[in-house]
Design a protein that fits this description.
The complex is a heterotrimer of chains A (296), B (322) and C (532). Chain A contains 14 helices and no strands. Chain A is mainly α and 296 residues long. In chain A, helix 5 runs parallel beside helix 8 and helix 11 packs antiparallel against helix 13. In chain B, helix 10 runs antiparallel to helix 13 and helix 12 runs antiparallel to helix 13. The longest helix of chain B has 39 residues. Chain C is of the alpha+beta class. In chain C, the strands form six sheets. Chain C has a five-stranded mixed sheet. Chain C has a four-stranded mixed sheet with strand order 1-10-9-8, covered by helices on one side. In chain C, helix 8 runs antiparallel to helix 10. Classes of the chains: A mainly alpha (296), B mainly alpha (322), C alpha+beta (532). At the A-B interface, helix 6, helix 7, helix 11 and helix 13 of A face helix 1, helix 6, helix 7, helix 8 and helix 10 of B.
């Protein structure tokens, strides 16, 4: 498991970004791989969100002989060990996978930004305490911790998303803290303070919007990380048995892999393409929002 | 340097204490009683035996008593007794740690060297074929689930082309002689290490490429080039050192996550290390073992970080001067 | 609809399976030869002492390390082992065993009748089935060092079956008689001293167990093998790959899936057989908590039985390699009877029964919902069964919420405290129904213990039948009683029976004399040898 802390290093210090969204989009759209990622992401989203309306085979229905290879029946990608349609599983599982990824990422961002913002803005003992908490989560292997949490509260979709969120916010917190440390002594922040603005307003309404670009990148990437995380948990058997997800498909079909390479390969490819699309878009955003690179 | 080091160690100790307390709490509010698991494994037990087992493991004591007993024991280097294996946890960990360290260190070194080399090479010529391939590969390594890479490697290199062993750390019937044994283990190590390395390979090549690019464009390198130093010297003497710094830091920071990766890779390849032990302990509610592993990995991570910190200072003396 | 389509396809496959079966039974008769190492696997064990632990993980190596008084052959007949002969009194209340002269434990101490008496006490007190097997054994007398006399308070028809090394291993009193709690005795894992054909040479719980030939074994010229290596492999996929690659010579309780069997047979080197598990009798079932609505209503259970097509699961999901399972007894048991009510697959009938029972289709097309627990210990069987049941019952308006138990203990706790609605479950018959079958039906056995009568079934008529069968020494009469028990159990739908377990032995053509008794791999392997 890798967390998306890479952006700590990719993100150059920024001047107050006055560049309008249009300039960012111009930058982004001139980046071929980013556009490719965006298109790929759109395809994945259409596949998972519109797919169930078009392809109406229930993912839990036993439709054909178990372990039928792709292209040998009307079920294009073959069937799994229960004779369920793999394609239907991919289409319906995508929604769950993306939902888990997105909600876990949201939680990651909420916790990470809150802790990072408070630590970076107030400094002193607050910073010290919150950074110790961050370190605490950093020295523990996050997958093990998530496994413990999922087992504690049983493997439901919500609990899985919460467990992933709880163990993966540290890099976001560090990133946010760094941004806040840098921005809190900026002139416009001082100006706000001198006119008597409340801390709460300064943190959330003044500094945060200016710290947003790297956080947006981080948020995008953490969706990908969360999807990989879900797959890892499912592979270890920690998935919700009542909902299909890509990770669960890999975990469930893995024992049958010798007779059905398709059962684990297709969901693996789906995860791979989705995370790849997210990474490409995240990278593109990073470049587009990063003024230093823009000069090049 | 000594002063900051001792401060770091002090910090580490407080952190470890927090790890112990919080994990202990977390595991003890979990539903599912370890003694019930044990009784189940025994095929059922009478209430009397259950009570006796509970008393044996001190589980009949109030929570705070259990906690302080545990902390006291840890201070004496005793991580408790495994419910399941009926063995001291430290013994279990030391039985397994070798396998995990072998796997993790091999994978990390491989990823570090190959990844950094690829990253630096590709940074030399942006937009070259090599550079694009490295970027693409690193994205791929980033985006595929690590256990899935492992399964694919098994299908490819153990099943379709039976080159490497499928699982385990040594052939069941060990070959005679030390050399043959070492060779056997190395042979078993290739696929798991490659799998675990894949994510970090992607990671380090990306990281070193990024920092190399930055360094190459910095003023002092330009000055050096302007002074007429050869490209080779500039790259390998000046730029390399600075480009390696973030990579080394990350090796430390990421170490906890490497252990997470090891859990998955060890499961795929049935590698008899700490990862599989942790997974089994969760399934068996063997909380002393699980606590021990979590604590032990925290210690490991902190030690690695302190070592990295020292290494950092040696590579870049400017830090200690600050 | 898809049933018929699938069945048609199946008819093409079936003849192939039969050919494979026939070719597997041809056994070449070669002269056994001594020597060699047999590679096998284990899923891991927490003790090597079968006197205190049931199950195959301990039992397979345990039966190699410890000897028993008798062996059981293919026809459930006892043959001499550590006891060279025995006599049974006319009233079936006294069994007198004569031990083999000069038999020794692995540490060189002689095996005496004292050890037999001690072993019986240990098993009776500590083994999960100790009481079921031996509660009627009042005392073991030891008139001399080589004679052990069992005095019974009531006849035990299956007593000799329980004298197999698996169920009554002879353990050394001078090691285990030191007053320590037997279930937690350190010598169960370390420096294990046994009485059987193989001695423990290396025991590394995470990696491997190595057993070596006991040169002083009491049967002359046995065992043939020099060494047994049990690699600890928990993952079934890994095991299959190792077998396919030829890294494993023989493995019982192989943990392979029915879908893997064909693949292994295709290698041409490997034989997959489900023979040799008659004494184990591993069956699966859907257990419903009979205390509460809706499952307290027989009509609802009948509806479920009509909705769940057991033979479809057996044929399609388990590749036709297992029997559908018609009642509490395994088809391999001598007491098995197929003369039980059958509930043909019929969703409409199921729906009608539910209407009758007062569960009409309500909002969201739903009649009622329930939580079905999936235990963790046989996930490869129970997972697919649970998912099938979920999908099938969904069609008649019953919403099934699957709950995967995170660990063994959580599931045990839920079931044994009766805090559940329904669970997938399975259990062993063991060689005599008194051990493995009665426990689920006896009113007195509604206890907070897993694999007892946790579903809460109680019927005096059933109790009377069970009591009669327990002491009946005439085989035919006993068979008739068990036929009635089976009929009643299915009539009352105490459980809804699933396909039997796909328990299989896999061995390569290098292996001679693979264990073939009803205990299969759980019997000692002293006759096994490796061909050139």
């Amino acid at each position: 498991m890798i967390d998306s802390s890479l952006d700590n290093f990719n993100t150059e210090p920024m001047e107050k970004p006055a560049s309008p969204a249009r300039q960012t989009w111009k930058m982004f759209s001139s980046n071929q791989s980013a556009v490719a990622g965006l298109i790929l992401l759109a395809i994945v989203l259409i596949f998972s969100l519109v797919g169930p309306l078009v392809y109406q085979v229930a993912p839990t229905e036993m439709v054909w002989m178990p372990l039928t290879p792709p292209l040998e029946s009307e079920y294009l990608l073959g069937t799994d060990y229960l004779g369920r349609d793999i394609l239907a599983g991919l289409i319906n599982g995508g929604r769950i996978t993306i939902a888990i990824g997105a909600s876990a990422a949201l939680l990651t961002i909420v916790i990470g930004v809150t802790i990072g913002a408070l630590a970076g803005y107030y400094g002193g003992w607050v910073d010290n305490l919150l950074m110790r908490v961050t370190e605490f989560f950093q020295v523990l292997p996050n997958l093990l911790l998530a496994m413990v949490v999922v087992m504690l509260f049983s493997a439901t979709l919500t609990n899985i998303a919460i467990a992933i969120g709880i163990v993966s916010w540290t890099s976001t917190a560090r990133l946010t803290r760094a941004e806040f440390l840098r921005l809190r002594s900026m002139d416009y922040v001082r100006a706000e303070r001198s006119i008597g603005a409340k801390n709460r307003r300064i943190i959330w309404a003044v500094i945060l919007p200016n710290a947003a670009p790297p956080l947006i990148v981080s948020a995008a990437l953490s969706i990908g990380t969360a999807i990989l995380f879900e797959a890892g948990l499912a592979f270890l058997g920690l998935s919700d048995p009542n909902n299909m997800s890509w990770g669960r498909m890999i975990g469930d079909n893995r024992p049958y892999i010798l007779d059905s390479w398709w059962g684990v390969t297709f969901p693996g490819i789906a995860i791979f393409l989705t995370v790849l699309a997210i990474s490409l878009v995240g990278d593109g955003l990073n470049d587009a929002l990063n003024p230093k690179l823009r000069k090049r | 340097m000594v002063k900051s080091l001792s401060k770091r160690i002090g910090n580490a100790v407080i952190l470890l204490l927090a790890v112990l307390v919080l994990n202990f709490t977390l595991i003890h509010i979990a539903p599912g009683d370890p003694v019930e698991v044990l009784a189940g494994e025994m095929g059922g037990a009478t209430p009397e035996l259950l009570a006796e087992l509970r008393a044996d493991f001190g589980l009949d004591q109030p929570f705070h008593v259990q906690l302080f007993t545990y902390l006291g024991n840890v201070l004496q280097g005793n991580l408790g007794y495994s419910f399941y294996y009926d063995k001291p946890v430290t013994e279990l960990i030391f039985d397994r740690i070798g396998a995990t360290l072998l796997l993790v260190i091999t994978a990390l070194l491989f990823a570090l060297f190959v990844g950094t080399a690829l990253g630096i090479a590709s940074a030399q010529k942006r937009n070259s074929l090599l550079s694009n391939v490295v970027t693409l590969l690193s994205l791929a390594g980033f985006s595929a689930p690590v256990f899935w890479i492992g399964i694919m490697l098994i299908l490819l290199l153990s099943v379709a082309l039976p080159i490497f062993p499928i699982a385990g750390m040594a052939t069941a019937d060990e070959p005679e002689g030390n050399f043959a044994y070492i060779l056997d283990v190395v042979w078993h190590l290739v696929l798991p290490a490659l799998t675990l390395a894949s994510i970090y390979l992607a990671f380090y090549s990306r990281l070193s490429r990024a920092s190399m690019l930055e360094v190459l464009e910095s003023d002092y390198i330009r000055t050096a080039r302007a002074k007429g130093l050869s490209r080779f010297l500039v790259v390998y003497k000046h730029a390399l050192r600075n480009a390696v710094l973030p990579v080394v830091t990350f090796a430390g920071l990421q170490f906890a996550q490497v252990i997470s990766g090891a859990v998955l890779v060890e499961t795929v390849f049935a590698w008899p290390g700490l990862g599989t032990l942790a997974f089994e302990s969760i399934l068996r509610r063997d909380s002393p073992t699980l606590l021990g592993i979590l604590f032990f990995s925290a210690v490991l991570v902190l030690v690695v970080n302190i070592v990295v910190d020292i290494a950092y200072r040696i590579i870049d003396p400017r830090i200690s001067a600050k | 609809m898809f049933h018929t389509r699938i069945m048609r396809k199946l008819s093409i496959i079936a003849p192939l399976a039969i050919t494979a079966l026939l070719s597997a039974t041809t056994i070449s008769a070669a002269e056994p030869k001594a020597g060699g190492t047999l590679n096998t696997t284990s899923t891991g064990y927490r003790t090597l002492n079968p006197a205190v632990q049931s199950g195959a993980a301990t039992g397979v190596p345990g039966s190699q390390i410890f000897a028993g008084l008798v062996l059981i052959d293919e026809d459930y007949k006892a043959t001499p082992y550590l006891a060279e002969s025995w006599t049974v009194s006319d009233d079936n209340l006294t069994y007198s065993f004569k031990l083999v002269e000069g038999a020794k434990f692995h540490d060189g101490q002689p095996i005496t009748s004292e050890d037999v008496a001690f072993s019986l006490e240990t098993v009776k007190a500590n083994h999960p089935f100790g009481k079921a097997m031996f509660s009627n054994v009042e005392a073991v007398e030891t008139p001399d060092a080589s004679t052990a006399v069992f005095r019974l308070s009531a006849p035990i028809p299956g007593l000799l079956l329980s004298m197999e090394p698996l169920l009554l291993p002879i353990i050394p009193k001078h090691v285990y008689g030191d007053g320590q709690e037997l279930k937690k005795h350190p010598r169960n894992m370390e420096n294990v001293i046994g009485s059987g054909p193989f001695k423990v040479a290396e025991n590394t719980p995470a990696e491997r167990l190595v057993l070596v030939k006991n040169e002083d074994f009491f049967i002359e010229g046995r065992p043939y093998l020099d060494k047994l290596v049990f690699s600890i492999v928990k993952d079934s996929l890994t095991r299959v790959l190792m077998m396919e690659k030829g890294e494993i010579d023989y493995v019982g309780f192989s943990g392979i899936r029915a879908t893997d069997a064909g693949r292994l047979e295709k290698t041409g080197r490997l034989t997959v057989t489900t023979e040799g598990y008659g004494a184990v009798g591993y069956i699966h079932y859907l257990e419903l908590n009979l205390r509460d609505k809706p499952f307290s209503d027989l009509k609802v259970r009948e509806a479920l039985a009509h909705a769940i097509d057991t033979s479809f699961i057996a044929k399609i999901l388990f590749g036709g390699r297992v029997n559908a399972g018609t009642g509490p007894l395994h088809t391999g048991s001598v007491f098995y009877s197929g003369d039980v009510p059958s509930f043909e697959a019929d969703l409409e009938k199921a729906a009608a029964l539910l209407d009758e029972a007062g569960y009409p289709v309500g909002a969201n097309d739903e009649r009622f919902s329930f939580t079905l627990d999936i235990p963790s210990w046989a996930k490869q069987a129970h997972g697919p069964m649970g998912e099938y049941i979920q999908s099938q019952l969904g069609k008649i308006g019953i919403k099934v919420e699957l709950r995967q138990a995170p660990d063994f203990g959580t599931w045990v706790k839920r079931i044994s405290s009766f805090d559940y609605q329904a669970t997938m479950n399975g259990s062993f018959n063991y060689p005599d129904p008194v051990i493995g079958v009665h426990r689920h039906f006896d009113c007195d056995n509604i206890r907070n213990v897993i694999w007892s009568n946790t579903q809460g079934y109680c019927d005096p008529a059933m109790d009377a039948l069970l009591d009669a069968a327990a002491v009946e020494t005439d085989l035919d009469k006993r068979k008739a009683t068990y036929a009635e028990i089976q009929r009643k159990a299915v009539e009352d739908l105490v459980f809804i029976y699933m396909p039997q377990d796909f328990t299989a032995t896999v061995y390569s053509d290098k292996v001679g004399n693979p264990p073939s008794s009803v205990f299969g791999p759980l019997a000692p392997w002293h006759d096994v040898y490796l061909k050139d």
